[in-house]
Amino acid sequence: MKRKASRVAIYALLIVGALTMLLPFYWMIISAFKTPEQIAQMPPLWFPTSFRLDNFEYAMTYAAFGRYIFNSLLVTVCNMVCTMIITILAAFAFSRLSFPGRDVIFSIFLGFMMVPFELVAITNYGTIVQMGGLDSYTALIFPYTANVLYVYILRNFFLGIPNSLYHAARIDGASNFKYLTRIMIPVAKPALVTIALLNGIDTWNSFLWPMLIINDPNMRTVTIGLTSFVQDAGIRYERLMAAACIVVLPMIILFLFARKYIITAMARGGIKG
User: Fold this and answer.
1) Which runs of consecutive H residues, i.e. helices, occur in the chain?
2) DSSP assigned state of 113
3) How far apart are CA 265 and CA 73, in angstroms?
4) Buried b / exposed e along 18-45 (16+ C-beta atoms within 10 A)
5) pLDDT > 90: what percent of the chain?
6) Do residues 116 and 194 lie in contact, with contact meaning Cβ atoms separated by under 8 Å?
7) pLDDT tens for each residue of 167-195
8) Which terminus of the chain has a smaller tally of CB atoms within 10 A, N or C?
């Protein structure tokens, strides 16, 4: 009986926490369908009686969200592809290859996780300026193509694969690249999907870096476009919430389809290694 009561308490606490995190999303969605009068109503209107779509129409016509979404999708996909290639090769080297100073180098890489991106933003900005890459897709892609956290997650996942498979493959004449593509990558699918998803969300939601290097309105990403929409269209909360829904919806859909891979990869990556 006592064990059952504790389980009920745990589930109740989890439900309260989930509802607390979902409340801002719910408020954003219903506010996007409200009128200005309903937005300003006190006490707040939690269940609007009518739903209006003109807020979304205004957001799509007043601001070039179609162009912003295209830019963000292009940059996100390119970042995901480059990140996957670099992360896979680095994780394989740190988990299977033997070379002098491997563990020391990896420990130094882990130390880089303590360095915030804002600290290196100025250096990256100077590099992009010297390359002449301002207002370009190249400037939006390069800073996100390598991440120590992703290498750490995938390395720990690779370490969970028995060494006997690697030695057997090498005895049979398989190269390191063939072993990586035929055995390790298929087995590490949950971790790879998780890394791609986390990198995609990070790139899609990036604000500081695009703000620094993008001045051309046609090169704006969705986050910069949303900020510009607020500045140009004024503070109309129902229209702002509609624009926010347009920006957030792709990542929510992506997360819902890949959430099981995130749980699997995080659990294995955090325990094994």
Assistant:
1) 2-31, 36-39, 54-62, 65-95, 102-111, 117-131, 137-141, 148-159, 163-171, 176-179, 185-187, 189-204, 208-213, 222-233, 237-271
2) G
3) 24
4) eeeeeeeeeeeebbbbbeeebbeeeeeb
5) 5
6) no
7) 787 777 778 888 888 888 888 887 888 88
8) N
Q: Which distant-in-sequence residues (6+ apart) come within 8 Å of 139 by Cβ?
A: 128, 133, 213, 214
Write 52-60 long-range contacts (CB < 8 A, 24+).
55/238, 55/239, 55/241, 55/242, 56/32, 56/242, 56/245, 56/246, 58/233, 58/239, 58/242, 59/229, 59/239, 59/242, 59/243, 59/246, 60/246
Distance (Å, rounded) from C-alpha 201 to C-alpha 133?
23
Do the beta carbons of residue 209 and residue 121 sit within 8 Å? yes
Give the predicted TM-score (pTM) of the model: 0.78
How many other C-beta atoms lie within 10 A of the C-beta of residue 148? 18
CA distances from 160 to 56, 116, 120, 154, 265 (A): 48, 29, 33, 10, 11
Structure tokens at 250: 């792709």
Residues, the chain: 273
Residue given tokens 């969300």 in the structure block:
201
CA 239 to chain centre: 25
